[in-house]
Specification:
The protein contains twelve helices and 15 strands. With 330 residues, the protein is of the alpha/beta class. The longest helix is centred in the N-terminal third of the chain and has 13 residues.
């Protein structure tokens, strides 16, 4: 009406820095009403939950806590990251998963990185350990996400039954048989193309995303914000959206990736991601038609988060930094 379009609030399904309240405020102001943080220490997440109760002015935070790995595994190698929790056995995996979920994690993130893109041989958990983690997550009514960057690591993720893959594979073109398995198991892919543009591997990432979408795969939008030593777009992820366009995704496919599918990645599909009766009122009003020109997503007229209008067309726009820096990959 009047050249305006109503959409669900957008969701960034792969960020870091989600425990920074200023980041959450900047996302919400631009219409990104939910973010999924896939790497923070358990103590950081616990402190955030204690100090910053939910408020409509900040994006809703869905968080995994630390990456579950093995001794000497990713991201301890190669980055020395502190956002890692090692396991030693399937029973150890069960105990850790239960503890993390009891301690405030909303989902689990498995590090299934054998190091191909780093030129390293990084140890990774066994199928029994990975399957146990997925089983605990599903038993607790939530999801398990797997960090992968190489085709060789996808089979373990699929064998374990994960719900989504975090990062597009960039070592080589996706084989047809891998695509068939991914589509057959309805695994979401969160490609983080902004990351791969930063590392100079955008061409392979975009090409593999194109193959995945053409095969019938479902994509959830996620950027890996603050997950590497890059300059990152804070707010509506237009860089990621532009790269998804380059991969041949239609405007509707991109919008669905940033709303309905990203809600599924957050285990919030019953609550947000579409505009329909019975769901939380996360709404974004933009001037123009994003189906004709995705740049209209920048022209925000109103944001409603959890039923509260937090921005209308008359409000002065705050000036959060458009880019934020990070120090390590996750």
């Amino acid at each position: 009406v009047g050249g305006l379009t109503v959409l669900p609030g957008f969701i960034n399904a792969h960020v870091h820095g989600g425990t920074d309240p200023s980041n959450l405020e900047a996302w919400a102001w631009q219409g990104v009403t939910t973010v999924r943080d896939l790497g923070a220490t358990a103590a950081t997440l616990r402190r955030f939950r204690h100090l910053y109760p939910p408020t409509p002015e900040r994006a809703r935070l869905v968080a995994a806590g630390p990456l579950i790995t093995v001794p000497g595994g990713y991201p301890t190698v190669p980055f020395g990251s502190s956002t890692a929790a090692p396991i030693l056995s399937p029973e150890d995996a069960r105990r850790l998963a239960e503890d993390l979920l009891d301690d405030g994690a909303d989902l689990l993130k498995l590090a299934l990185e054998t190091g191909t893109v780093f030129g390293r041989n990084i140890p990774v958990m066994s199928l029994a350990e990975a399957s146990m983690l997925v089983r605990v997550a599903h038993g607790r009514g939530t999801v398990a996400s797997a960090h992968i960057t190489s085709v060789v690591d996808i089979d373990l993720a699929l064998d374990a039954g994960v719900d989504d893959l975090a990062h597009m594979a960039v070592d080589r073109a996706l084989p047809d048989e891998t695509l068939e398995r991914l589509v057959g198991q309805s695994v979401l892919w969160v490609p983080t193309l902004e990351l791969w543009q930063c590392t100079g591997q955008s061409s392979m990432a975009v090409g593999n995303l194109r193959r995945f979408v053409r095969a019938g795969g479902e994509v959830a939008l996620g950027t890996d914000f603050e997950g590497y030593n890059c300059s990152w777009e804070l707010g509506m992820p237009m860089t990621e959206i532009g790269l998804m366009e380059r991969a041949g995704m239609s405007a509707m496919e991109i919008i669905v990736a940033g709303t309905r599918n990203a809600a599924r990645a957050c285990n919030l599909g019953r609550d947000v991601g579409t505009v329909e009766a019975g769901k939380l009122a996360d709404l974004l009003l933009v001037r123009g038609d994003p189906l004709s020109r995705l740049g209209a997503l920048r022209d925000v007229r109103l944001v409603m988060h959890n039923g509260v209008v937090i921005r209308d067309g008359r409000a002065a726009q705050p000036r959060p930094p458009a880019r934020r820096m990070a120090i390590q990959a996750r």
